[in-house]
Amino acid sequence: MKHKIASLKNLQENGQNIHRLPFSIRILLENVLRNHDGFAVTDDHLDTLVNWDASGTDKDIPFKPARVLMQDFTGVPAVVDITSIRAEFVRRGGDGIKINPAIPVDLVIDHSVQVDYFGTDYSYQENVKLEYERNAERYQLLKWAQQGLASLTVVPPGMGICHQVNLEYLAKGIVERDGWAFPDTLVGTDSHTPMVNGIGVLGWGVGGIEAEAAMLGQPVYFTCPQVIGLKLNGEIPAGCTATDMVLSITKILRDTGVVGKFVEVFGDGLDKLTVTDRATISNMSPEFGCTVTYFPIDDQTLDYMERTNRSPEQINLVREYCQENMLWRTGNEEIAYSSIVELDLHTLEPTVAGPKRPQDKILVKDLDATFRTILDKDFQRNYVAFDDRREHAWLNEGGSGTQFVQEETDEQKETLAIEATDLRSVKVKLKNGEYRLSDGSIVIAAITSCTNTSNPSVMIGAGLVAKKAVEKGLRTRSWVKTSLAPGSKVVTRYLERSGLSTDLEALRFHTVGYGCTSCIGNSGPLPSHIADAIDNSEMVVASVLSGNRNFEARVHPQVKMNFLMSPMLVVAYALIGRVDVNLMEDPLSYDPNGNPIYLKDIWPTQDEINQTIKEAMRKEDFKDVYDVIFDGDEEWKKLEAPEGGEFFWDKDSTYIREVPFFKDMPTEPSPLTEIEHARVLLYLGDSVTTDHISPAGSFNEKSAAGKYLLGKGIERKDFNSYGSRRGNHEVMMRGTFANVRIRNKITDQEGGYSVYFPTKETLTVFDTAMKYQSDNTPLVVLAGKDYGSGSSRDWAAKGSRLLGIRAVIAESFERIHRSNLVGMGILPIEFPPGESAASLGLTGEEEFNITGLTNDLKPFKMVKVRAVKLSGETVEFEARARLDSDIDVEYFKHGGILHYVLRSYLNQ
């Protein structure tokens, strides 16, 4: 090759068994080999990877990614942090221009568009208008950063979702830089960054804090992973989709247990999976629990690169490098994986997942029965068959007849009072008609998320389902809020060329924006009459969406059941408007002549889908869309933003504020102290997500954040969301642990509440923390398993730090959040194996003392925890501090990774 390379083949020829290593480990090995400097990257790191132990090790390895990917929710605080570091560096006499990204950073604005308008031809324009009105200050910062920070590019709003843009355009496969050729690798500030694994690019989600360190040239350190081989056999059967496949894999890998591990896919099933099918799988790595789900580069990869307008030179470079450097998949490899999990694809059936976890797989044929069970178990309500409901609609449609329900007398109305155990059903009257909403009614149907909108097979499939439904005379139910949010404008191109946009719009699936929308909670408000009906009757309504997450209160705070599924099924369920149905057997509806229409009547064949893709997709669409990707629309072009290298903070801004983390920071770190007389701020259960800790959605005027904004003269209608205000620590610290569904065991009040034990007052978490801060009382959190699962949300750690939390004691931690806690100087501690707060008899009312921090602190050190009850009784135990590497210890000693980086610059 004409480029310099870090040769794996040379290692193989010198007697190392590189051919037995998983491809993902080979890429990590190349990274260490190329970046070896004897200091940050050492011989020990090289030895760990050359002699990779499939059974696992506790040794840490460094990773220096080729680039960083960000979306705006996490990108704004990252830019604020970098800009704050630059400002502090200047105040201390440094040259601010030195504080710049050391590697390329791509920031895609995709998380801010909200579905306020839907179901009309003006929905997109109105949503964009509102997006700019709400986010002008944030966008001004990002537009400044585009010219004020070196090596940072910004993809303006309305261009697409970061992971789909990454897959279709940013990912190179192999990078050329400074005379070298090496694998394209990245870290991203979004947990679904592994989607790019589907095109053979190794990358994963990290916290914004870690990403900022990588931007500034620091290696990302992590424990050398085990690699689970996922063997796929056969091919997806007729009637099933890539979404059915990925939801089935989610269940399998969650049951297997792959947290903190890599997954690598092999088997003859790969030969029939397109890159977009593969990317659908890789996208849901966080839902599997693993760090990456890697697909090695092969002929399918190059075929996709060619069809998405990568240059012939780039494609040839990828082929030549991978074949030369042992990174090309032939299908005949003999790799020694840590363990192997198999899935026979021909066993797949139509599948959904929910109602509040992606791994809770439900076959479509079983959703009706599952709903009834959940309604009874979780909500203590008796299911009533649709046709037997006492408050059934005045009009019973179907068959050849129409049955009218007699108007109730006052006496009858009294007998229809809702019992606690009754299924809820409410009549909604409108100017243009009336209908009934019941438990199980679908109020949101969203074709959303890069998980699926990047895959032409399921998007064209959804369009064909719509086409056939319209031809049969079917229409979406009037109570369903519908939306279509493509992950790139290429999708719109092929849907319009095929004529399927017209059919989708006939069912009110109009394009509402090019962003994440419902998948991240930007569903927008429900129509007021529906929202009132839900609140007044405490109805358990549902959403159906083609997303990747369905945690409680994530999709919409009023929607308690959320089901993940393919875009094709989203359309089908919107036609029937409820989830208490067996879609495989029950009719979706009736045509105008009274004939029942079933799912099979509107489901396209794979040949129909493939033929439409062949006719509708064009290589030049990718060229046209991505040639102007950084230009933005007219709104972006006319947006005024500061220029130059210095950003001037507006003290009156409620969106962008300089962070307080470096205030009064000494040049050298202070000696560590033990944690003494700490009180419990929250005592939480299992599977507490970063959505619980730092919600991204809307909030009301009664919340701590809402009261703060009202005090600043901001009206309720202009609150926007937590996610949009991540550039303002005052809002975010008030929003920490403010999720309306979080359950703190030390108080009976659901939502973001705690107890200030000296006076036994129940207050918001924020107000409780502030009272403890005024007493100089350190705080701890008690939690169960999988603490911090979900999105890679740095404010879940930053907010905890600003509340005064010094330690989190949990049964286990999600990988990214554990790292983020360390990155903010908070100590993650794991209960002894088999123990928990409950098994140790802890109630959360105790005072905690944690010792062992001041003496010989090292990775995985056992610390002593002593809890003193009100009675004076003590509970003592040893627990492992989850400082997993030497660099973790250094970050913790410095009070966080940002402090470490700033001090490094100051000491240069």
From TrEMBL:
Q: Which family does it belong to?
A: Belongs to the aconitase/IPM isomerase family.
Q: In which pathway does it act?
A: Carbohydrate metabolism; tricarboxylic acid cycle; isocitrate from oxaloacetate: step 2/2
Q: Which SUPFAM superfamilies match?
A: Aconitase iron-sulfur domain, LeuD/IlvD-like
Q: What does this protein do?
A: Catalyzes the isomerization of citrate to isocitrate via cis-aconitate.
Its keywords, alphabetically, are: 4Fe-4S, Iron, Iron-sulfur, Lyase, Metal-binding
Name this protein carries in UniProt: Aconitate hydratase
Report the residue ranges that make up the Aconitase/3-isopropylmalate dehydratase large subunit alpha/beta/alpha domain in this protein. 54-577
Q: Which Pfam families match?
A: Aconitase, Aconitase_C
- Organism, by scientific name, is Sphingobacterium arenae
